[in-house]
Amino acid sequence: MYKIDNNSDSIQKIDPKDLMAVERATTALIGTAISLIILGFIIEKFELFLHIIAAEIKGGDKAKIPQLAHISFYNYLGIAIVTAGIILALYTYRYYVSWIKHLEHKEINSDKTIYLVLSLFIALIGVVLVLSMLFV
Asked: How far lies 3's CA from each of 20, 44, 99, 117, in Å?
């Protein structure tokens, strides 16, 4: 952490520009959490779509359609993505509260862990989806 003002260690009034910047970042994280939840829901419901297509094509016998042998994969993937969205939404509140505390003390927190974790998780989702398109 870096002190912005070394003259006083007491809690001071937060600059509105800094507060609005933190609120924009928090809103962006909430938007990302909502997007993850929606993406997970769509992927999970894709399994239902595949079941309906199987019923229409072959009378509901998934054994006759080899591409539908791994339908439950999308169910678990969707649930994992929705869970990640929920965790991100809960973490966002902690992120906001910690930034407000840092701004009150005129400190800058350089922790970028959430962005690393979020980037790695989204990249992992992409890799899993690509692998599912190639091999499942």
From this structure: 19, 46, 13, 26
